[in-house]
Amino acid sequence: MSYPINSGSGSGSGSGQGQRGIGLSNTIHSEVAPCLPLPSLPVFCGAYDQDLRLFDEPRGGGSFRSLNRAEVLSQATRISDLLRQTDVSYLTLRDDTRAVPYGYVEPLELHEQVLRCSSEAFECSTAGPIKEPISTSTVPEKKSFEQSIHITSKAQRDYGATHNYQPDYVVANNISTSSSRKPKVKKKSSDDFSSSVGPDPAELQDATIGNFCELLEDFCGRAEVLSDDRDEAEWLAVPLSDLRMLINEIMSIRAKKLLHLVPVDILVRLLRVLDHQIHRAEGLTIDECEHSDSDIVSSIFCALESIHAALAVMAYNQMQKQLYKEEIIERILEFSRRQIMDVMCVYDPSYRALHKPSENGGFEGDEDEEFDAELGSASKKRRSNKTVKVKKSSINKVSASVNTILQKMCTILGLLKDLLLIERLSDSCILQLVKTSFTTFLVDNIQLLQLKAIGLISGIFYSYTQHRTYVIDEILQLLWKLPSSKRALRSYHLPDEEQRQIQMITALLIQLVHCSANLPEALRQSSSGNPILEVSIDSSYPVKCHEAATEACCYFWTRVLQRFASLKAQDVSEMKSMMENLVMDLLTTLNLPEYPASAPILEVLCVLLLQNAGLKSKDISARTMAIDLLGTIAARLKRDAVLCRRDKFWVLQELVNDDGAADCRYPKDACSICLDGRVEKLFLVCQSCQRSFHADCIGVKEHEVPNRSWQCQFCLCRKHLLVLQSYCKSQFKDDGKKNQSRSEKNPEASDPITNAEIIQQLLLNYLEDVGSDDVHLFVRWFYLCLWCKDDPKSQQKFIYYLARLKSKAIIRDPGIASSLLTKDSVKKITLALGQNNSFSRGFDKILHMLLASLRENSPVIRAKALRAVSIIVEADPEVLCDKRVQLAVEGRFCDSAISAREAALELVGRHISSHPDVGLKYFEKVAERIKDTGVSVRKRAIKIIRDMCTSNANFSEFTNACIEILSRVSDDESSIQDLVCKTFYEFWFEEPSGSETQFFGDGSSVPLEVAKKTEQIVEMLRRMPNHQLLVTVIKRNLALDFFPQSAKAAGINPVSLASVRKRCELMCKCLLEKILQVEEMNGEEVEVRALPYVLVLHAFCVVDPTLCAPSSDPSQFVVTLQPYLKTQ
């Protein structure tokens, strides 16, 4: 699987919306260079005025009249009739032409009206016999011919990528040159074409095919010896330059879609010549030569170019069956296999050591290695090989000839993938291809070849369903054979801005699951809208496809878990590490738009881990591994849910209001994207939903601002889906006999378009924009299968779903040619849609089972489960407020193991400061742990309660918290005593930062902050039987003897001592003022209310009487209190 697609490299809109789509991270320059498209003209073909006019009207804003007016719309029927009868035979049209946007084009209601009148109004039809497609070369009908210019086609992108690797041998890829022997004839023909005013397409087509046949005859004639008694030695070697020129010509006629019209006898002769060129190089190896210009290298190059040419012919649709001779195909596969083996031996010395030629000429590693529980010797040999220094085989030390062979093999693997999709190959060929492709993953520095191998294996998995289990078994065998040093090697670049990478084997697994959804062949081959609606498959087919994908995932994970259960103890950690790497890769790709299969793969794993293979297993190692993996997965699900909930992206807000109506909570005078209301920026207002957008936020430049009514992408997509519904309904009416049973219950036109459907379609449009290759088609089909599974009406809307798959082929509106959504926006959309799938909905089940594991008898299981719950809580601390979680965690506060009790407290304590409401819920049970028998548990409980008080200034349980902490001031453990005193120092006696300007009462010298602290002490003492414990705290705080030994050794800072003493004096003064205030009140309970203040003052006096004899007025306290003292 390769992703040589970059939306920014083509003739993009130039709208400045940033990089979108799959980048070029997994390709190299030599593969990309031939793929760059030529500039495309916008629809008005360079006209000065891009606005289409049906009437003669003067230019200018004042006199401009919109096409969306009644007198124009009323002509929709006549326009559709006109378009139906239009003859475009004089035009040269490309079948795969796609609309190219020019800035922002207003969607015309006229377009939709015409489409309703005639669904085929905008289809390009040509008069005469060239209208029908040609399906066989025995009755060659005429076909429209494209002019001989450079056209970037899919064939060139896939197979013309390696011509420039070897400058000494390469001939320029000029598709207008037919033969090196007849350049003048070709040029003359080309000149005749260009000078002709109206060339007949049939004549042009015949001339092109004739020139190509002449070239093939000339090529074959120079390779054959005229002899009646001919044997293999009489076939002449063809120069490398001629072979490469032949490839250029084949690729040229492939691009013009004429190769299947070439007479089959000529192609058979060509393949026979090429086969002999391959046969000449059999048995040769690149290791046998030291110079890149040797005869051996030249012969190998000629054979590889012959393979390239032969596959370019065979890997083309509509070719005759006579071409596919098993002998030729097997020779191609065998020679390719040997070259891949040789290349890998050069690139990786460890592979060379394991696959040295044996005495019988074979390779030691070629034999099939059984993947059984006893671990074959070859597997052990691979696993134990950890000392080879791979850096010695770095790519800059590989010879140019080996590198050229590597690049050519990349091209050949790509063609082999197309061949096996066209022609049914024998089982032996398929199994050989699978084996050869999988060996590429054992070697470093050949990433491009590995990507091609992924594509080839995926093609086999898709087309040859009987070999799917074999392919999955090969993946498992490969996982175990990989050396430990390479198991975490992540060399597959993901198409996102963060440049993240995953393992190649994980990328292969994801791609195989995409292919297991059984995309209908008719959908894969169709390029227009009509064949989509003519697909003859059952309406329940997408659901069955999803079941097939689930079955593939289930088989893979079942085999993995079976392997884990059969391992010996010393191998368990290695297997667990392998599974963790796989899960981490899948989580990395989760909710990325290009990898929808990641969620089902993980979902199946979770289901199995929740059953007998995991949490219910009798093996404790399997249960602990299951808990670890489930905790990691659940934490990611919760993290994604939090991100989605907090995201204010305007498109996602529509999911909250999914009733089909516009959301009225959007900002009126601010951009819906950046929420900035600066007026100096250019604003666009959607005429449907009235949302405002900055032009630069949606990627529209100032000179591209439409001068007519404009709609946002969301409203535009809603409009197109409505048209799509009407179109599907009209097709049902026109073809009622074929689809009568389905059309009777077809409610597409009446069902409202939901916001979720619109957002889904935005994602599909984006994926169609960034790539039109099979890889992206499989991805879009996989999304449809997922959505059909969750839609109870999917069978009734089956054709509508199919139409959405290729909506742009049906609705040819420039307004949807480019989605204008950035990659980041699409990732947010994918994340939001992912919250509604069954995998995300399974979070509660996973959490429930993990909480149940907290009650297991085994302390190891309980500890693992507590750690799993902890990482979930890290993702969203609000989980602690869940009643189920609270009961489970509080139950671990009383666990028999001290470590478990401490871990449970730690789990709660980490989130006290950020979530004060959590502290309030857990306070009572945490306070009970202050009396725990474990010293570490008591310490942790005190610290948690301290954090509860300090993080929330209005903590309602502050007084009870102080009482609980104070109860441990006489603890048997001195460290806990110190912790208690230090806690109250931070509560009451530590000087706060900043200056205090407010004072307690009029004329008072006591700061308000000190008065509040004093009141807290009094309130605490009211609920205590005596003040003896308070005396201890005051005494130790005045001496500051609870600091660590290191601080004591350095000496207590006298400034700190003086600061504490001053605060104590202020507290005493505050107590005196409070006593006077209470005594001055009228009431019978004056003495009761004054007593706590007196007791606190007494506690200070017990510690140090001089606190009540300030130097400024030593007799103040005695004189003030003496009248209130009574004697019995």
Question: What would your notes on this structure say?
Answer:
This protein is mostly helical and 1128 residues long. Among the domains are: 329 residues, no CATH class; 158 residues, no CATH class. Helices cover 55% and strands 1% of the residues. The strands form 2 sheets. Strands 1-2 form a two-stranded antiparallel ribbon. Helix 9 runs antiparallel to helix 10 and helix 9 runs parallel beside helix 11. The protein starts with 28 loop residues before the first helix and ends in a 7-residue tail after the last helix.
Q: How many strands, which pairing sense, and closed or not: the largest β-sheet?
A: 2 strands, antiparallel
Tell me what portion of residues adopts beta-strand conformation: under 5%
Q: What does the overall shape look like? A: elongated
**What is the overall number of helices?**
48
Radius of gyration, whole Å? 39 Å
Low-confidence stretches: 1-25, 32-64, 92-106, 125-196, 358-396, 659-663, 737-749
GO molecular function, one term: zinc ion binding
InterPro entries: ARM-like, ARM-type_fold, Cohesin_HEAT, Scc2/Nipped-B, Zinc_finger_PHD-type_CS, Znf_FYVE_PHD, Znf_PHD, Znf_PHD-finger
Keywords: Metal-binding, Zinc, Zinc-finger
Protein name: PHD-type domain-containing protein
